[in-house]
Specification:
This is CheY-like chemotaxis protein. This protein has a single domain, classed as Rossmann fold, CATH 3.40.50. Helices cover 43% and strands 20% of the residues. Strands 2-1-3-4-5 form a five-stranded parallel β-sheet, sandwiched between helices. Helix 1 crosses helix 5 and helix 2 packs parallel to helix 3.
Amino acid sequence: MARILLAEDEAVLRMLVVDTLEDEGHEVIEASDGEEALEKIKTDDEFDLLILDYMMPVYTGLEIIQQIKGMSCYEKTKILMLSAKNQTTDRERVIEAGATEFMSKPFSPLELVKKVEDILHGHK
C-alpha cells in the first residue's frame, strides 16, 4: 500500500482516480488545486507518490515540482504528471522539471493502475 497525494481540479476525474487507487489498497489524499496540494506537501512528508495535474488553479503541477525540489523529504518521492497537453515538448518539460512519469488524459482506470504500480515498484 502506498500513500498518494492526488492534486486534480476536475472533481469527477479526482473521484475516479481516488476510487480506482483505493480499490487497489492505496491511501489517497486529495487536493482540488495547486495551493491545497502545496500546503499538504509542506505539512506531510510521508507521500510515496504525488499525482499532479499539469493545469490547475493557483499553482500548476510544474510550479509545484519547482517549489518542492529543494525539500529534502521529497528528493526520492515519485511524481506522476497528468495532462491533457500531450505534445512531445510538454512531456519533455515535465520530465526535465523532475516528474518521474507523464500520463495523457483521458486515460482508463486500468492504465492508471498499471502506471502507478510501475512507478511505485521502480519499473519507470
